[in-house]
Amino acid sequence: MKTCLTRTHSVATLVAALLFTALASAGRAQTTTPAPDTDKEKDDVTELQKMTVTTGYRSPKAIDQIPGEIKLITTQEISNAQLLTEDATAVLARTVPGYAPSTQQLQNTGETLRGRVALRLFDGISQTTPLREGSRNATFTDLDIVAQIEVINGPSASEGIGAAGGIINYISKTPTKEGSEATLRTKVWGQGRDDSSGYRVGLNYMHKDGPNDLIFGASYKNEGISYDANGRRVGFGASGSSTDSESRNLFIKAGHTFGDNSAQRVTLTVSQFRIEGLGHYIPDGAGNRALGITDSLIRGQPPGGKNVFNDFSQYALAYNHSALLGGKLNLMGYKASQKMRFVAERSGVDKWDPQYGPIGSFFEQSEINSQKKGFRSNWVRSNLFAVEGLEMNVGYDLMKEKAQQRLAITDRLWVPPMNYTSNAPFIQTSYNHGPVTVSAGVRHEGGQLQVDDYTTVYFANNSFVKGGTLKYSDTLPNVGVIVRLPQNWSVFGSYSKGFTLPNVGIPLRNVNTPNQEVNGIVDLQAVIVDNKEGGVSWRSKQFSFSTSYYRSYSDLGSTLSVDPVTRDFILQRRPVKLSGYEFTGEYRPNSAWKFTALYSHAKGFTRTTATGPLIRQQGMGNVSPDKLNLSTTWRFMPKASVTLDIEHLASRDINVGAAGEEHTGSLTLAHLTANYSTKWGDFSIGLENVTDKYYIMPWAQIDQFQNYFAGRGRVISVSHTKKF
After folding, report:
1. For the residues of 327-378, what is the DSSP string, one character each?
2. Is 0.85 topped by the overall pTM?
3. How far apart are CA 421 and CA 626, in angstroms?
4. Cα distance between residue 586 and residue 24, in whole Å
5. What residue ranges of the chain have pLDDT lower than 50?
6. Burial (Cβ within 10 Å: 0-12, 13-18, ≥19) of residue 385
7. Of 196, 163, 168, 202, the residue nearest 182 (C-alpha)
8. Going by C-beta distance under 8 Å and a sequence separation of 6 or more, which residues neighbour residue 13?
9. What is the pLDDT of residue 12?
10. DSSP 452-516
11. Are the beta carbons of 110 and 100 closer than 8 angstroms?
């Protein structure tokens, strides 16, 4: 169904003005932060300074020395997104060009990065479950504990399996100031209806006393139901919703620095997060696309149903030595548990078994359980062999994961336990000489997947499958160069290979012929992605911009499609070719104003049949339409500011008259936040979907199972932050 939003004259004028100023801008927006210009008055212009990331390098690395598009989402951007919504991925959709639009659900199906699934990390620990990707791993902590989000665009093997689209690493906060400080954040929101209201309260306590530091974070959130702009309740996605839920988060990180010149440090981290559905609503029948009736909810509880949840926890112990053999050593051991329970639904064809009653007569819901443990290490040395600018980073990663999926109500095994072990040594080098930085490295992925004998469910003919062990081995190189040109211009080019596993659980549970062997299932082969990218950027004291073009190809890709009978996902292993270009721009005329813009365009192609040319364009499940996001911030008083965000998604028609035909309508939304600081704390107001526009979610415009949803109407939020 096509949905077009009509823009008012004032919004159109503002969009045009913002776009004009952004296109006139210069410098690498995502690599800089403002600081006063010492040569002029404080309110005149801002100086753009360099920033660093740790993702992919395990130690701070200046972004302008990394050959690729890097986005660093700051604490301020995270906080501003939280003023509008509690949606965990909204900040990514609004600040990262290649990230797909948010689903506004607990599930993140289709929320790809440059058309492929990204590896999500929390302090370097994987939150992704590639063995059975349930598209629920984007909600695993309270964002108030996150200092910054580092996004490495494009396929990468630097942090392990799963990064076919790139890496999204959430970095937790660390105390930096001596003494103690507590921050209490509260927020209430609603849409003018009794069951739409929600609230959140969170406390972060930081303490630093010389060599010792501690951060303690705890939060609680209770969220009501969402309504669209027509006053209709927004339904639950097939994989779950964050509405009608409560969540709790506990985070503790304690560090101790010791040794000569305080060169050594140990850090213990504990993170426990749980979001759980309250079970107050059930689907109000099924939506009707032909009549424009979206999926909705009514009060009630499914018989025998259990609450939906995400239950993520991790424990890590890290040791760092900044002066070992002339270099820096980083070691970390960790253990992580990731459990997800999905929405209860009437037993359709794929989950039905006649021993429990007629088809559709009972409810069923599935659970994914993943247990990880691992070890990460690296040693980095600068000025290697007494050569100034030459750096080497060498390390070894070990990860063991066990994942499975069960049908919770009838207690049946749907996906058998899968045991994966990854051994990955790596080496990365870089050389800075004047205006040129050259980097090259290689990582060897030695993996092993072991599955015991198992029997599929009734839908797959209760087929016996003989277990086995699959071995994966691939050497994954990367190389890149950056040239810093006169007048603050720079160009880069890079080549890299990424490694991930397909959604292994889907082909395993779909085996429907007896006496097959795990070793003979071709769909279990690894996904290897080749990525080429080039870009140019320019910056000055007030302006910045960067643009890049990329192409990636996988000979045996991994594409999800929908089974016309079960409406469930099936995995297709066919070649996938992706290409696209992105733009980011920023303009700061003075300390009071800031304008930003980002644009992305991507296309993906695969085969229509098992053989043949790559002519079928990938749709919303993989690649989203063109995106343009604009933002302006006005600090009209020293302690007060307002920010207006405009999100625009273009319409798209693909594969017309052929397999995979899709039509998606354009979408334009506006959001507003206002902040005012007082001696009693900081007060903020957020207006999501300011104009209260009615629209169908972009991913919901494509007919899949239980996914016909309207987007949220206007949401009004009030927040208060007080530091003690």
Report:
1. EEEEEEEEEEEEEEE---EE--GGG--GGG-STTSSEE-EEEEEEEEEEEEE
2. yes
3. 38
4. 9
5. 1-49
6. exposed
7. 202
8. none
9. 37
10. --EE--GGGTT-EEE-EEEEEEEEEEEEEEEEE-GGGEEEEEEEEEEEE---THHHHHT--STTE
11. yes
* Contact present, 452 and 417 (Cβ < 8 Å): yes
- Tell me if 564 sits within 8 A of 558, measured CB to CB: no
Reduced to 3 states (helix: H, G, I; strand: E, B; else coil), residue 633 is strand
Name the DSSP class of 689: S
| Residue 510 to residue 133: CA distance in whole angstroms | 15
| β-strand partners of 677 | 682
Tokens representing 10 are 């004032």
Take residue 226 and report the two structure tokens written for it: 């969402």
Taking a C-beta distance cutoff of 8 angstroms, is the pair 29, 586 a contact?
Answer: yes
**Distance between CA atoms of 502 and 509, rounded to whole angstroms?**
14
The SS3 assignment for 60 reads: coil
Helix (H, G, I), strand (E, B) or coil at 520: helix
Of all helices (H) and strands (E), which one includes residue 35?
A: strand 32-36
Q: At 63, is the secondary structure helix, strand, or coil?
A: helix
**Strands 166-172 vs 119-122: parallel, antiparallel or unpaired:** parallel
DSSP letters for 566-591 = T--EEEE---EEEEEEEEEEEEEEET
- 3-state SS record for 279-331: CCEEECCCCECCCCECCCEEECCCCCCCCCEEEEEEEEEEEEEEEECCEEEEE
pLDDT of residue 355: 92
C-alpha–C-alpha distance, residues 219 and 203, integer Å: 6
The full DSSP string for 119-139 is EEEETTEE---GGG--S-TT-
Largest CA distance in the chain: 80
CA nearest to 122, candidates 305, 251, 277: 251
The number of CA neighbours under 13 Å toward the Cβ of 165 is 27
pLDDT of res. 36: 38
Separation CA 452–CA 466 (nearest Å): 7
Which residues are 572's β-sheet partners? 559
**What's the confidence (pLDDT) of residue 522?**
66
Q: Taking a C-beta distance cutoff of 8 angstroms, is the pair 264, 678 a contact?
A: no
Distance CA 583, CA 536 (A): 10
Q: pLDDT for 682-695, tens place per residue? A: 999 999 999 999 99
CA distance 309 to 365: 12
| Residue among 558, 569, 696 nearest 618 (CA) | 558
Check the CA dihedral 35-38-41-44 and report its sign. negative
For residue 694, give the H/E element and its range. none
Give backbone dihedrals phi and psi of 522, rounded to 5 degrees, phi first: -65, -30
Pairing verdict, β 627-637 and 593-606:
antiparallel
> CA–CA distance from 294 to each of 60, 191, 383, 567, 694 (Å)?
48, 19, 61, 17, 12
| DSSP run (H or E) holding 239 | none
Per-residue pLDDT, 110: 84
Residue 567 pLDDT:
59
DSSP state of 111: -
Domains recognised in the chain with CATH numbers: 9-205+212-723 (2.40.170.20)
User: Other CB atoms closer than 10 Å to residue 167's CB: what's the count?
Assistant: 29
